[in-house]
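tool_call predict_complex ligand=3,4-dihydroxyphenylalanine
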Amino acid sequence: MTQLIEKINNASSLEELENLRIETLGKKGILTLEFAKMKSIPNEEKKAFAQNLNEQKVKVTNAIEAKKVVLEKEALNKKLENEKIDVTRFNNELSCGATHPVVETMDRIITYFQNLNFAVEEGPLVEDDFHNFEALNLPKYHPARDMQDTFYNKDYTLLRTHTSPVQIRTMLKQDPNTPIRMIAPGTVFRRDFDITHTPMFHQIEALVVDDADKVSFANLKHVLVEFLQHMFGDVEVRFRPSFFPFTEPSAEVDISCVFCKGEGCRVCSHTGWLEVLGCGVVDQNVFTAVGYKNKSGYAFGLGVERFAMLIHNIGDLRSLFESDTRLLGQFR
Ligand code: DAH
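tool_result ok
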């Protein structure tokens, strides 16, 4: 008996203790088997026999319970020690953020034009019909309004579909005789969603205004060729006649495909060219709408996402807005 109690006290794990319990008190344990002998014990000895066995059982049970408390406490302490978290510890593996490719591209373009002395202007995202359409030579029911699927609000305001209304706001806020050289970066909204369209995206607008005949299409062309070669490297630039209500003449500008160098590939639909922006000479109707006389100007507008995708070879526009750290991590 003393040997058994000693074994219990020396048990080094809960498992060992449990085995000792089974060996003594389990179905086939030594003490259990002793109790079974009761039947064959003469009646007059039964009481003493049972008493003795019960005393032993109580001793063993108590010893096991006591040891169990000690071992459980030890196990808990060990677990706590192993799982300890030092909340003050600096984890070198913490990944740090990166500038989103759209913001980075926007910043690059802004810096480029600031270096050419362009001011950075802003306008509201919730616009009215006058600034977003009417003053830009897009009268009501003009078919060209269909080019831009607009989100309208109940109060006849709308989410601006392009950054061009900032041209109007800038011209209205300053004296018509002060020359303008501005860009307007910002968010725009259209009801469109597929691989190449998201309902929210970013544009950069530019407007240059001065006395009539001081600003020409040639100036526009020079500025854009320099700009596009700064952004995309050694590319060819071509101007294709096009239509925008607020410019006349208007052009769309293509660069030779940055992926196949103009040979023709999937990205450029085998044309060798990529369309990158719209531009033109400011339509006189726009000047009339803001009360400017004897002025000339040029303007252009570009999609920032399109630039970011071409610069970083990103295939699906939507991936720019999914906040997937596997994409963003590549720009760290
Ligand atoms: N606002 C046009 C658009 O969203 C882009 C644009 C084209 C802007 C020609 C201009 C421009 O200033 O001259 O599609």
